[in-house]
Write a structure and sequence with these properties.
The chain is mainly alpha-helical. Helices cover about 60% and strands about 0% of the residues.
Length: about 140
């Protein structure tokens, strides 16, 4: 089942990258790579700011948004009855969430761990336990 979850995550990540404009093409991003951290710092202090934010470490996953998703999903993962069922459910729901939040593009499952470890450690611990793992990286590969 871990292999299926890993394949699903890779598929999600590949699909999310398809519309990003790629390297050097006329994509929608016009900022230079070094400006993202400065923009994040300025945006963090403003209430109601929307748009993609990148953590100081370059993590593209917004912890608050991911934790809101996890908080709603975790009770369902617990009710799935098995770690394999929870992994399948999580992979599908994560793919849907990333599709609905195109600014959230985790590079690897470790980005999910880092964002949730900082923003909602209790919810993260419960969710990965439901997945029968110690981390999202462990669960999704």
């Amino acid at each position: 089942m871990r292999r299926t979850a890993s394949i699903a995550l890779l598929l999600v990540l590949a699909l999310c990258g398809c519309g990003s404009g790629g390297s050097g093409s006329g994509g929608g991003h016009s900022s230079a790579p070094g400006t993202a951290a400065g923009a994040t710092t300025a945006a963090t202090g403003a209430a109601g700011t929307s748009g993609a934010q990148t953590a100081d470490d370059g993590n593209p996953v917004d912890g608050a948004q991911f934790c809101a998703f996890l908080g709603k999903l975790e009770p369902r993962l617990k009710g799935d009855g098995s770690a394999a069922g929870a992994e399948a459910d999580f992979a599908v729901e994560l793919a849907n969430w990333i599709g609905e939040h195109p600014e959230q593009k985790p590079r690897t499952a470790a980005d999910l761990d880092d964002a949730s470890r900082q923003s909602c450690p209790k919810v993260r611990t419960a969710a990965v336990a439901d997945l029968g793992a110690s981390s999202f990286q462990d669960s999704l590969g």
